[in-house]
Amino acid sequence: MLDLSWGELLFCTALALVVVGPKDLPRFVRMLGAAFAKARRFSRELMDGIGRLEREVEAASGPRDGEPSWLQWVPSEVREERRRLEPHGDRAATAEAYQAYRTAVAAAKTRNEAGANATSNAHGPTEPAA
To answer: ∠ at Cα 59 (56, 61), nearest 5°?
Structure first.
C-alpha cells in the first residue's frame, strides 16, 4: 500500500515519538486511525455512488445489442399505445392516444392486482383462525 520498509517504518515511529511526544502519541495514533477510517469510508461511498450512477446511465440509455429492454416486461397493449404516442402533429389524435395509453396502463394494473389477489387467496387465509 505505502511500500514502507521496516527501517522506514521504524524511522517514522521514532520521528512521531519525538515530534508528538510519548504522552500524546496514543491520542495521535487514534486520531490518525480515525482519519484513515473516514477516508476509506468516503472512498467506498464515492465508488458506490459512481457505480450507482453508471447503472442509472446504462438503464436510461437503453439496452445494448443483445440485452433485453425494460420494455419487454411491459404488457403488449401498453407498448402498442406507447408507440402510438409518438408526436405526429395532430393534437386530437395525440390526446386520444394519451387517453388510450392511460386506459391500457390502468387495465394492466387492474390485471396485476387481480392476479396478486388470486395468488394470495389460493394460499388460504392470511390470519390465523381464532
So the answer is: 105
